[in-house]
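Table 4 source record.
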Amino acid sequence: MTLLSVVQMNSQNDIEANFSVIESLMMESKAQGASLIVFPENFVCFAAGKQRETAERFDEFQTRLQNLAHQYQLWIVAGTLPCPYRPDGSVIQDGRVRTVSLCISPEKTEARYDKIHLFDVQVGDAVGGYQESKFFEPGDEIVLAKTPFGNIGLMVCYDLRFPELSLSLRNRGANILTAPAAFTYTTGEMHWQLLLQARAMDSQCQVLGAAQQGWHGEKRQTWGHTAATNSRGQILEIVNQEGAQFITVPFDLEEQLKVRESMSLMQHRRLVQF
């Protein structure tokens, strides 16, 4: 059995203050015996409207997180960071950036996932409408990270609404799905917990949803409620309080195998093949 930590934060634009919270949570997670810690979307800097400026420091932030992973001997799913270049190293020329989730071992960065599904949605909150495609270029590759405690399928926020991604990750060998997120208060209240459980039930993977919570400036409010499911789609633990904190939940590969053997969903699928 492995212990996995899932973080809730209220990140602002003060990068050093955010890193102080990040390191404090890592220290506590390690003390609880966790092997992995998952941070939410925009965890280093919420940076609304300053994505390109923040993205120019991507390499710096990656190195800093790698050093923390080594220091605390923890695997990190590094929420998301804006990045000015694609996985092949080519720089995005139109001013947009990629939303990147890194999986970092205590030795090095093991995997990079660029968010595929962009949030171009009318919400009806104080912001009104969101158009991520104006500021971000979508990724196009499905990414699986191999770890000593199971394979991690990397997802980000809006990706949760598209079951074909989680099913494709399961088909490639995923045991755990990570979902760093900054759900709006409006959409989170309606669908956050439901989506975490649905993707777990579909894929028979453990799902770890790390969430931003609270106000970020005067208009942007996130839902929070960081949570983790088991491979049956049941909630193991969910945060119902405000502020920076984390939950730590168990993961057992043998138990997951029993779930999958007792109900062979991937083998029974008929209409769509992955």
